Amino acid sequence: MEILAFGIFLVAVQSSVTRGFLLENIFNEAGETIIDVLESMGATTTQNMLRITGLNKELTRPGTYTLFAPTNLAFDTMPFYFWMFYMSNQTQRTEVMKYHIATKSINSAEFKNDQEIPTQLGIPIRINKYANGKVTASGSPVALTDKPASNGVVHILAKAMLPPHFTLTRALEICPAFSKVRAALKFTGLSSTLNGEGPWTLFAPSDKAIAALAPGLWEKWMSDKNVITGILLNHVVKGTYYTAAFDNGSTWKTMSGRTLTITVTNGKYMVDDIEMKFIDIPMRNGVLHAMDTVIPPPARSA
Ligand SMILES: *[C@@H]1O[C@H](CO)[C@@H](O)[C@H](O)[C@H]1NC(C)=O
Ligand SMILES: *[C@@H]1O[C@H](CO)[C@@H](O)[C@H](O)[C@H]1NC(C)=O
Questions:
Q1: Burial of 66 (0-12, 13-18, 19+ CB in 10 A)
Q2: Of 3, 27, 138, 270, which has the fewest beta carbons less than 10 angstroms from its beta carbon?
Q3: Ligand 2 neighbours (beta carbon < 6 A)
Q4: How far apart are the C-alpha atoms of 156 and 213, rounded to whole Å?
């Protein structure tokens, strides 16, 4: 779905924005502020959100800011519950918008993989640059870069960023759907690992995934710390891999040494034929993808 939205977005911006972007890029030393740039880019929802939260005033003053500006389509296609929770509540909305304002000017040429960029919210944006050429900011595809303003620079995002407040471990502690994995992480001591710096990509099996196993199998695994550790590490990859990194047929090595294969079909992401039900949930120390099936151990050690 994200790919589809991204595709539609690209078509939508090609005509209206790219032309203006190329033209103005050449001669924009003329004092357009970040807020003016949003206007000329057609990023009016971002502009409105900055106005409603009062953050626009600062972005018209002299300075060296970086604004990560989601397109209007990015807001329009935000899942309804995200919109209700984040954008219709002034406190949350202000946090989200502060998270889009970096406190120094950074051009895309300076982007590095897993670089953390400080924001006005105090929670850093994580930049990822993947082997397939895609660049994300806390998981949101960076669509257009380096739009210059008199007081900084604007990068355009295909998705709004949601500020990650939690580590992987903390998120699993809070979310009721992961009680089994949470207990297993605690039992094996991996919960302190996944609370640390990382970064990691966690393919987190829900309680539904564990309930779907053969009767007694999870309990059997849980009776041996080494076995359950291996099972859990089948679900962890070192590094921050949002779905932007996943091409059809790409393979990833887990912390247990197992190789996972990604398949992308009609915008759905599968890992070893298991569908990722919730994707790209940003964490302080990585990213979480959730699924309703456990990645089984390799056949010979089952
Ligand atoms: C808005 O969000 C804040 C912070 O999460 C929360 O305390 C408050 O109750 C929310 N307000 C409404 C009207 O939901
Ligand atoms: C993705 O890869 C699978 C397995 O290699 C292949 O069967 C499928 O046709 C590919 N799909 C696309 C859209 O390329």
A1: buried
A2: 27
A3: 248-249, 263
A4: 43
Task: Specify the residue with its C-alpha closest to ligand 1, atom 11.
Answer: 89
Residue 60: count other Cβ atoms within 10 Å of its Cβ: 15
pLDDT digits (tens, 9 = 90+) for 85-118: 899 999 999 999 999 999 999 999 999 999 999 9
Q: Which residues line ligand 1 (CB under 6 A)?
A: 89, 91-92
| 2 pLDDT above the threshold of 80 | no
Taking alpha carbons only, the member of 186, 233, 235, 236 closest to residue 209 is 235
User: Domains in the chain and their CATH numbers?
Assistant: 2-157 (2.30.180.10), 168-301 (2.30.180.10)
Atom of ligand 1 at shortest range from CA of 89: 1
- Token readout for 62 is 């002299």
pTM for this predicted structure: 0.87
